[in-house]
Amino acid sequence: MTHPLPLSQWLNPLRPDDTRIAWLGAREWQLGDLRHDVGSLFQALEKQPGERWALCFENSYLFVVALLATLHAGKIPVIPGHCRASLLGEQQELFDGILSENPLACDSPQIVVAAAENVSHSNITLPPVPADSYVELFTSGSTGLPKKIIKPVALLDAEACMLYARFEPRLEGCRVVASVVPQHLYGLTFRIFLPMACGLPLHASMLYYAEQLSALPPEHRYVFISSPAFLKRLDPKLSPPPVGMILSAGGMLPWKEVKETQSWLNVWPDEIYGSTETGIVAWRQRIDNGTSWQLFPGVTLRAEGEEWRLLSPLLHDEAGLLLDDMIELVDDGFRLAGRRGRVVKIEEKRVSLSEVERRLMALEGIVDAAALPVSRGGRQGIGVVLVLTESAREQWLSTGGKAQEQAWRRALQPWLESVAVPRYWRVVDDIPVNSMNKRVYAQLQELFS
After folding, report:
1. How far apart are CA 271 and CA 283, in angstroms?
2. Does residue 192 sit in helix, strand or coil?
3. I need a surface site. Which of 101, 184, 305, 410 has the fewest CB within 10 A?
4. Nearest CA-CA partner of 325 in 346, 309, 311
5. Residues 398 and 424 occupy one common structural domain
6. 216, 222 in Cβ contact below 8 A?
């Protein structure tokens, strides 16, 4: 069959059963295995009354199984953006049930998904995936509450087609490995849709360490789906694996890491600019630090005052979308000039400052809170300025602050990503505001200088 394949054709009966789909160590899954596992989960889902099922997986093969079974069953896959049981329990109104690779301590109906050990050929006839199927993703909105983003499967297919058109010669013959989870659009697009559409075997596990990347079997060639946070931790003393292409997204990749990555792997990284709301917008491959971003075909930017409106075939709304990023047009493309709003990126993860403040305000003794990004020694973390009750302030002073800060961190960990848990703490009598009663963030930043 001709690539790229739309999701509706991933299980097409004309594709050979022995088509490689995924691997994990010595274990390898072929298309026949995938058909069997999807069919089994489809039968289990058919008996469930719930329509919307949260997909909570790090294993990308099982994620594919769950995604296909849900869609073929006419259900709605919900991607909550995390697999934390405490937060899933708080967000139960977002879904009717949970599909996961491990049991989770939640009250919602759950199905634990596993790959069959002994596969017989599946004789289950699956109904077609409805043409109007979609996936629901949740990301941090400006209020800190989960923001629902609907992604029609047709647009996810179109995104894979755009990537194939741009990168096809370098993708051919590769296997796909990743250091990002499929719980966000970047991982969903590049770790799931791209290899499945292009017929490339995908690594079921996530890479956490440079040692795992270095240890990849040398007889294959790889596309590495990564992020700046991982590329900053590469170890040039390790043996380089046969990586033929590196894709990085989720945040700015510093020029120092670009050069060090190329020096170790002999490959210049390709960077992707986009977001959950927009899908892919632009790409660049820097061989010098002045390389500009290039829009994907069909994507345009239109100035509206000081803001920019994105028009893209990957947007559900034909009217386009106003970007949070500030854009500077140059002769050969565009450059990014900062970010607006209350959502920031810390180590390539979106952090809602409003959500950090909301969680802090729920803790005993905290009257008011202001969160902001703080840079120290080339690293960025979250700093918070707190106003405490009199008793809480006395306790904070009596312990020198450190013990109380550790207690606050522990209280926040079930609710926030690790990069969103504050690293820097300040206690004040009042949070400074201007004549319009708006917080003066320049003064707040000075508290961390």
Report:
1. 5
2. helix
3. 305
4. 309
5. yes
6. yes
